[in-house]
Design goal:
Elements: E1 5-11, E2 31-32, E3 36-37, H1 40-48, E4 53-58, H2 63-72, E5 82-87, H3 101-108, E6 119-124, E7 127-129, H4 133-142, E8 147-154, H5 156-159, E9 163-167, E10 173-178, H6 194-198, E11 203-213, H7 216-223, H8 229-240, E12 243-247, E13 252-254, H9 258-267, E14 293-294, E15 298-300, E16 303-304, E17 309-310, E18 314-316, E19 319-320, E20 325-326, E21 331-337, H10 346-355, E22 362-363, E23 368-374, E24 379-380, E25 385-387, E26 395-396, E27 400-403, E28 406-409, E29 414-415, E30 420-421
Length: 423
């Protein structure tokens, strides 16, 4: 039986730990896999699950996110489906920003009045995973749950970074703790599958994915003035409602840091990646780009998006975004090049390639780049060497940032001929 579900994707966080990628865009708008945005993941999961009534809550640096959603998700006039943006706004009830996940949903509930639904599915806009939400909803309905929380088993080391739930044999959540220390977490193990037990993953981490029965969400947000689901609303619900754990044992990662973002993208180049782009359709903005042209380049475990012109010597274990340009003799390893938003006129490329004032957009000739993220529209000249690694100290500079050994070249940055970073 198909259930009536409305989905709410939370997309308003500052994403400070992903800086500088979030200096000019919100976290859910950060490009992934060369052609998508992070927000495409939960929206695609919804559409693949048969749920097409979706609100996206936005706030900080939301212009590019709003533009992307407007240009990507348009349904037939005969369809009742929608992907609508709900931005923080001044109203007679208040004029402040959203102050947390629960506050954002509380202040936008009025938009649900004209939607026919029985269950509310609340999702994060900055996670990488594939899930059939219909199985989650079926579990919620079949077990008569008021609130269901998607959980993923993690080991003791990773558990210290998450909200950890303790569930009994009936999957009822009986207690919750936020980011326990290494000793405290040992008391928080739950029943998990044999496979998870063998891996030492016996602690249930909240994935930030919630299902609420109609009316339950409104009651909880009315009775509890708390601003955050994980820290305030969910602990309160555990005391007063039937709250169940739905265990998910697939691939899932929270894109919270530069290192996790880098690893998630480079992991896509594996022979059989944990997040398989060839499994389910990931929807995004349709672009009418030409096919990529590759001349004299050796490719190894590399993803190449549409519209690229690649003349480099070797690309290895890298993700190359749309419209990327790479010059002759260049070697790129373990790098995510986000791509370019526009094509420069050929005459400008030829002129800039001679004068290098500034270099053409893209990567020039005879460069060596490794362990790096190149944000959109950067201009990297000829003979540039960028080599990330744990030998580098964290730091923020005019053209780039270094975090956990990853060199992040900032959006629109200009790297002059012969520049060396990390070498």
């Amino acid at each position: 039986m198909a259930h009536k579900v409305v989905s709410i994707v939370l997309g308003g966080g500052r994403g400070t730990r992903l800086s500088p990628l979030t200096e000019q865009r919100s976290k859910p708008a950060v490009p992934i896999a060369g052609k998508y945005r992070l927000v495409d993941i939960p929206i695609s999961n919804c559409l693949n699950s048969g749920y097409n009534k979706i609100f996206v809550l936005t706030q900080f640096n939301s212009a590019s996110l709003n533009k992307h959603i407007k240009n990507s998700y348009n349904f037939s006039i005969f369809s009742k489906g929608f992907v609508d943006i709900l931005a923080a706004e001044q109203t007679v009830e208040g004029d402040r920003w959203f102050e947390g996940t629960a506050d954002a949903v509380r202040r936008t509930q009025k938009n649900l009045l004209n939607v026919d639904y029985d269950y509310v599915l609340i999702l994060s806009g900055d996670q990488l995973y594939q899930m059939d939400y219909s199985q989650l909803i079926d579990f919620h309905v079949d077990n008569g749950s008021d609130v269901t929380i998607a959980t993923i088993p993690v080991n003791a080391k990773d558990a210290t970074a998450f909200g950890i739930l303790k569930a009994n044999e009936e999957n009822e959540i009986v207690s919750f703790t936020e980011k326990p220390d290494s000793q405290e977490v040992l008391n928080w193990s739950s029943e998990v599958s044999d496979d998870m037990e063998k891996q030492g993953r016996r602690y249930l981490a909240s994935m930030g994915i919630y299902v609420f029965s109609k009316g339950i969400l409104k009651d909880l947000l009315t009775d509890n003035p708390g601003m955050d689901f994980g820290k305030e609303i969910i602990p309160d619900a555990i005391e007063t409602k039937k709250v169940l754990s739905y265990q998910f044992d697939g691939y899932w990662t929270d894109i919270g840091t530069i290192k996790s973002f880098f690893d998630a993208n480079i992991g896509l180049t594996d022979d059989i990646p944990d997040f398989n782009l060839f499994n389910e359709t990931v929807f995004t903005r349709a672009r009418m780009l030409p096919p990529s042209k590759i001349s004299g380049t050796t490719l190894n475990n590399t993803i190449v998006s549409d519209g690229c012109i690649l003349n480099g010597d070797k690309l290895e274990r890298s993700v190359i975004g749309i419209r990327s340009r790479i010059g002759k003799g260049t070697v790129i390893k373990a790098t995510y090049m986000m791509g370019i938003d526009y094509y420069e006129p050929l005459e400008d490329v030829l002129t800039l390639g001679t004068t290098q004032q500034p270099p053409p957009v893209g990567v020039g000739e005879r460069c060596y780049i490794e362990n790096a993220i190149l944000d959109k529209n950067c201009r990297i000249g000829n003979d540039v060497r960028i080599k990330g690694g744990l030998h580098l100290e964290d730091g923020d500079y005019e053209t780039h940032t270094i975090q956990d050994g990853v060199v992040v070249v900032k959006k629109n940055a200009i790297i002059s001929n012969g520049t060396r970073i990390g070498c």
